[in-house]
Design a protein that fits this description.
Blueprint: H1 2-23, H2 31-61, H3 67-261, H4 264-274, H5 278-285, H6 290-315, H7 321-348
């Protein structure tokens, strides 16, 4: 019974689908698949009929035991007969649908041709529509821009109008104030002219005092510069004198050692050979070496660089006291070392 109900439901679905296929002329349904399905359904119905007959024989043998079931079976048989009638009707409908399908397929060919022509027309219309839409969109954008500009100009106009009204009020107030200020200015000019005469006298006197102080400070600065330059020059000269003294002391020591090594007779013999006096021989012995002259040049160049450095410090911007002090202390330390060296040489000699 359950299988029979399932088959009936499937048949109803098929009828519904076939009716829909008949209504829609453009979409043809596959005929072969529907025939196969109908055959399968018929086989299933035959099998169900055979089973029902078997069950009816069993039900007849058990009539005495179950009368209620017999009544149900009768009702079911009535339903089956109705279903068979429905099936017959559906078969007729399927045949009608097949004939309609053939007619629809023939109609489809003509409709396809018309559809192709319509599609072409639709494409042309779609292109026209797209062009028109583009032009409409551009016009809408222009309209939006124009409306925005209009609203901005309206706002600017209202603001300008409000500002003009405010400025008119301010002008009126200013005109009234100007009249008052002109009256006050005349009074102030009179009083200011009197005060300016007095101030001019005071400022003249103050300027004279300031100029005198400036001249004094300039003179002091010049004196300080000359003092620093003289001090540095004196330091340089004293250092150079110490160097020359140290060189002379060293040479005197070397000459004395040579004299100690040489006897008086050998000195006189060397002088007679060279045809010079003994004093000239001592001067010849005291001639400077090339290395000593090069060293003296280097020291002289260093002293000149030191003087130029101090000149740059004096010409530089403030403050320069610490760097100037360092430079002078450096030269003083150098002089101290030379003095110590000279004293030690003089002790030995």
């Amino acid at each position: 019974q359950q299988e029979k109900e399932d088959l009936q439901g499937k048949l109803k679905l098929r009828e519904h689908l076939s009716q829909n296929a008949g209504k829609s002329e453009a979409t043809p349904a596959p005929s072969k698949n529907s025939d196969l399905e109908m055959k399968q359904l018929q086989c299933k119905l035959k099998n169900s009929n055979n089973e029902i007959t078997k069950q009816s024989t069993t039900i007849k043998s058990l009539k005495n035991e179950v009368q209620e079931k017999e009544e149900r079976v009768r009702e079911l048989q009535m339903k089956i007969s109705r279903l068979e009638r429905d099936l017959n009707m559906k078969r007729h409908l399927i045949e009608d649908l097949r004939s309609r399908l053939k007619a629809n397929q023939e109609n489809e060919k003509t409709s396809n041709e018309t559809l192709e022509s319509l599609e072409r027309k639709v494409k042309a219309l779609a292109e026209d529509c797209s062009n028109k839409k583009a032009s409409i969109d551009s016009l809408k954008q222009r309209l939006n821009v124009a409306t925005k500009e209009k609203s901005q100009y309206e706002q600017m106009y209202h603001k300008a109008k409000d500002e003009l009204e405010k400025k008119d009020l301010k002008l009126n107030n200013l005109e009234s104030k100007m009249i008052e200020t002109e009256y006050a200015m005349t009074e102030l000019e009179a009083t200011a002219s009197q005060q300016l005469h007095g101030l001019a006298k005071q400022t003249g006197q103050a300027l004279e005092t300031v100029q005198k102080k400036l001249l004094l400070t300039n003179d002091k600065v010049e004196e300080f510069m000359t003092f620093v330059k003289a001090l540095t020059r004196e330091l340089q000269q004293s250092v150079q004198e110490l160097r020359t003294k140290i060189k002379q002391a060293k040479k005197m020591g070397e000459v004395r050692t040579c004299k100690k090594g040489l006897s008086q007779e050998s000195v006189q013999l060397a002088a007679s050979i060279l045809n010079v006096s003994t004093t000239d021989l001592e001067e010849i012995l005291q001639v400077e070496d090339d290395e000593e002259t090069a060293k003296a040049k280097m020291e002289f160049e260093k002293d000149e660089e030191w003087l130029q450095y101090i000149q740059k410090l004096l010409e530089a911007q403030f403050p320069f006291a610490s760097s100037l002090m360092d430079a002078i202390l450096q030269k003083l330390n150098e002089k101290k070392k030379l003095v110590e060296e000279y004293s030690s040489l003089m002790k030995h000699t």
